[in-house]
Amino acid sequence: MEWRVGGPVAEQLRPVARPRLYEVIVEQLCAHIAEHEMTPGDRLPAERELAAQLGVSRASLSQALVALEVQGVVSVRHGDGAVLVRQPIEERAVKALREHADRLPEVIEAREALEVKLAGLAAERRTDAEMAAIDSALATMESEIAAGDRGVVGDEQFHEAITVAAHSSLLAKLMHEISGLIRETRIESLSQAERPRASLEGHRRIATAIRDQDSAGASRAMADHIRMVSDVALLREGS
Predict the structure, then answer these.
(1) Regarding beta strands 74-77 and 81-84, do their DSSP bridges make them parallel or antiparallel, or are they unpaired?
(2) Which long-range contacts (CB under 8 A, 24 or more apart) does 143-150 make?
(3) Are 201 and 120 within one domain?
(4) Is Nucleotide-binding given among the entry's keywords (predicted)?
(5) What is the pLDDT of residues 171-209, one digit of tens each?
(6) Are the beta carbons of 124 and 114 closer than 8 angstroms?
(7) Closest-CA residue to 197 (of 148, 157, 127)
(8) Are 224 and 202 contacting, i.e. CB atoms less than 8 angstroms apart?
(9) CA distance 76 to 233
(10) Which of 156, 179, 158, 164 is nearest to 122 (CA)?
(11) 23-68: per-residue pLDDT in tens?
(12) Phi, psi of 74, rounded to the nearest 5 degrees
């Protein structure tokens, strides 16, 4: 067989994928955990110190820590820093990170398909008690943010309360099926600067439309909210 430009060799060549910066930092963090023989419950150094040790910016380090939090490797607590939850395996951590980034667009599409409809139905069908649950979730998220946290718990409660208020068992089942994937995108989104407060404002607009029993308005507000929270760093860096 003759090997020439345009022949079999050229056909087998593919561009070499460059690792994203946060992937490199995740690898470094896994190595740091292993080298220091850290066990679950141990606290990583403060972000400023850890960034200096790794030679990276705090913003890049923060993104990598969020990526590990999404995988359940660390828990990032306000005032406590990052605490190890389970010991990572470097190769699996990076593989899981890439899979997470790759499926983000599909998760966002699913949220748009399901949650926009759920918001409209909630506006039509909600009871006073279910409206109170939506308002309670807003208050929880507001309290979390005021305390310096990201508002993840209140965010989850808000979307769950809307699902309940929609009174659609099949849509609720579909939401339950992807709840773990949605939690990944929620942590990623709410970890970005100013995003928690912007998300809270989006929630307030949705709640107002549901309270007014404005189905079309609730659907529009939910669509706007999902578009906003879907602007995540992993997708921007990967584009």
Answers:
(1) antiparallel
(2) 144/196, 145/196, 145/197, 145/200, 147/78, 148/78, 148/79, 149/78, 149/196, 150/187, 150/190, 150/191, 150/196
(3) yes
(4) no
(5) 999 999 888 888 877 877 777 778 899 999 999 999 999
(6) no
(7) 148
(8) yes
(9) 18
(10) 164
(11) 788 888 888 888 889 999 999 988 888 888 888 888 778 878 887 8
(12) -130, 165
**CA 108 to CA 129: how far, in whole Å?**
29
CA 26-28-30 angle, to 5 degrees, is 70
Residue 13, number of CB atoms within 10 A of its CB: 7
Amino acid identity of residue 78, one-letter, is H
Is residue 82 domain-shared with residue 108, that is, in the same domain?
A: no
Q: Find, among 182, 23, 177, the residue nearest to 103 by Cα.
A: 182
* Residue 72 shares a structural domain with residue 184: no
Residue 239 inside a domain? The answer is no
- Tell me the C-alpha to C-alpha distance, in Å, between residue 34 and each of 39, 68, 104, 114: 9, 15, 29, 41
DSSP code at position 7: S
Give the pair of three-digit tokens for residue 55: 């030679």
Q: Which residue has the tokens 């339950």?
A: 176
Range of the domain at 71: 21-88
* CATH number for 67: 1.10.10.10
Q: Is residue 4 part of a domain?
A: no
> pLDDT tens, 81-99?
789 998 877 666 667 666 6
Residues 6 or more apart whose CB falls under 8 angstroms from that of 196 comprise: 141, 144, 145, 149, 150, 151, 190
- Give the tokens for residue 154: 């209140």
Which stretch of DSSP H or E encloses residue 235?
A: helix 233-238
Q: Phi/psi of residue 197, each to 5°?
A: -70, -35
